[in-house]
Design brief:
The chain is mainly alpha-helical. The radius of gyration is 21 Å and the shape is elongated.
Length: 191
């Protein structure tokens, strides 16, 4: 168990640091978030029409399976525009200490699961790079099941999807560097 905790801390810190680098120094996300022209008018309209924190979509999906409502929705969707807005009417600190603490905890918990998966797999008996690749493959799995799914079903733009996909895969390769250095079959059998 001690080995899993150390691997989780090492992998989680590397994952968190990579996330910071990907958003601040390495141009992984450059150009993936776009500004709204005439932002004040758009925000005013949102404040009038959206009263609570949530994810809003347009055109609105029909509340029932009534064929007329479904057809109307299909026509609006085909004509466009379509979109999704993540909205919080209250705002807040964009990089609060609470967010940072929760972020590192999430990274460590995620790395703990990845280390546990590795420790239970045959990959734990492979060489260092084989173990790193195993953890990196988890990043590919996450990318396919999350970012690529959102690109397909939720119309996420390709540039945004590509940025997040690269961020995720590279992040898990970095996490794998730390996790693979600690999780080895020999040490697990001693535990």
């Amino acid at each position: 168990m001690k080995q899993l905790i150390f691997a989780a801390i090492a992998g989680g810190i590397l994952l968190f640091v990579w996330g910071w680098l990907a958003w601040t120094i390495v141009p992984v996300h450059d150009g993936t978030l776009h500004s709204i022209e005439n932002e004040e008018a758009v925000v005013t309209a949102m404040n009038v029409n959206m009263d609570k924190k949530g994810v809003y979509v347009f055109p609105a999906m029909p509340a029932s399976h009534d064929p007329v409502a479904v057809e109307e929705y299909n026509q609006k969707y085909q004509a466009g525009p379509v979109g999704m807005i993540i909205y919080d009417p209250h705002g807040g600190d964009p990089m609060s200490a609470t967010q940072m603490i929760i972020g590192i905890i999430i990274s460590i918990l995620s790395a703990f699961l990845a280390a546990w998966f590795l420790s239970r797999s045959t990959a734990a008996a492979s060489n260092y790079f084989g173990r790193v690749i195993y953890i990196g493959m988890l990043g590919i799995f996450i990318t396919l099941f999350s970012h690529i799914v959102n690109w397909n079903w939720m119309n996420y733009p390709l540039d945004y999807t590509t940025g997040w996909s690269l961020d995720t895969i590279i992040g898990w390769i970095f996490a794998g560097l730390g996790i693979a250095a600690i999780i080895k079959t020999r040490k697990i059998s001693e535990a």
